[in-house]
């Protein structure tokens, strides 16, 4: 039996029947469709139509069983490599701006955004500190249909960010390639990763299904879900920052605007600033006890259109074709 079935950092004490929950996880690992090709950490397993690493899957099962959303909770939702780190930093700074605009107290100067805004399916049920004091902020890579029932049924709010699939793929390939290169001494072949991504076999993929789930939900529940595009946020940061602040219940006052609070948060959370902070150049983020990633890996370029440096014209056309087919009739486009 695989080692990860025996080595877990998750806490099952709150489960009604801990042994039964563990048994369910092991049974999924034993029987679920499996892909061993390209993840940096271990194999991927298909659950509820999406691909997960076993530790994320274990946390997902615990979250689905145990997590009780509060009306005040704000959950930042995304597929991997779509602007998650930036969204975490912006939202955390908006909701904690008295601290974040004070250099002597600013948590973002001392901790990565992933430590300030924990993952629902990663941090909450592990034996480690899991929420910034009094913060209602959480994050998740789960698809909309895999969210705990309490999230969907409660009055908590969701913010979803998506990105052009071509840039998502390139960023994901670099991220996983960098981790594997450190561990195994080689960069995962672009062509192989591309084929897997197009087939939907990537972390929390199929990517298009992930996006569509939240897009359709945002149309049905516009007061509950704010749907953002990374490209729009890059192009009109000030506009969307104010829209985000309004949505999460922390709008900027007229006096704050006059004093430059919006611009200060934009500068604080900019790629150029965050990537140069000592904590993000030298620190590490322990996703799990067995998976530790250098913080610098979360800050590669952050550019729109970086796919042009990696993909051939044929690759570009293939992803665009899949995107057009998948999104047809939905009203959603990536321009």
From TrEMBL:
Domain Sulfotransferase: 73-331
Major enzyme class: transferase
Origin: domain of life: Eukaryota
Keyword flag Transferase: yes
Keywords, in A-Z order: Transferase
EC number: 2.8.2.-
A molecular-function term among this protein's GO annotations: sulfotransferase activity
Family assignment from sequence similarity: Belongs to the sulfotransferase 1 family.
Listed name of the protein: Sulfotransferase
């Amino acid at each position: 039996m695989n080692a990860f079935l025996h080595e877990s950092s998750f806490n099952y004490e709150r489960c009604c029947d801990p042994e039964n929950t563990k048994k369910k996880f092991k049974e999924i690992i034993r029987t679920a469709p499996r892909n061993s090709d390209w993840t940096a950490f271990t194999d991927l397993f298909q659950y509820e139509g999406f691909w997960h690493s076993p530790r994320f899957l274990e946390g997902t099962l615990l979250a689905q069983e145990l997590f009780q959303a509060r009306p005040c909770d704000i959950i930042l939702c995304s597929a991997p490599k779509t602007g998650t780190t930036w969204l975490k930093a912006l939202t955390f700074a908006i909701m904690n701006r008295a601290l974040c605009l004070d250099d002597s107290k600013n948590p973002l100067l001392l901790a990565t955004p992933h430590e300030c805004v924990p993952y629902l399916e990663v941090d909450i049920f592990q034996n480690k500190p899991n929420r910034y004091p009094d913060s209602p902020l959480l994050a998740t890579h789960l698809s909309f249909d895999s969210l705990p029932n309490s999230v969907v049924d409660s009055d908590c709010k969701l913010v979803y960010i998506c990105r052009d699939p071509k840039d998502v793929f390139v960023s994901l390939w670099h991220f996983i390639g960098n981790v594997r290169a450190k561990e195994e001494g080689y960069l995962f072949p672009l062509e192989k990763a591309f084929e897997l991504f197009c087939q939907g076999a990537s972390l929390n993929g199929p990517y298009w299904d992930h996006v569509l789930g939240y897009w359709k939900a945002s149309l049905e529940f516009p007061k509950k879900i704010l749907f953002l595009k990374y490209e729009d946020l890059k192009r009109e940061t000030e506009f969307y920052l104010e829209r985000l602040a309004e949505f999460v219940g922390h709008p900027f006052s007229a006096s704050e605007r006059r004093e430059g609070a919006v611009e200060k948060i934009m500068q604080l959370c900019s790629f150029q600033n965050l990537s140069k902070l000592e904590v993000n150049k030298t620190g590490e983020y322990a996703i799990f006890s067995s998976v530790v990633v250098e913080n610098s890996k979360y800050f590669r370029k952050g550019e729109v259109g970086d796919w042009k440096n990696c993909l051939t014209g044929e690759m570009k056309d293939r992803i665009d074709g899949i995107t057009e087919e998948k999104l047809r009739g939905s009203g959603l486009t990536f321009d």
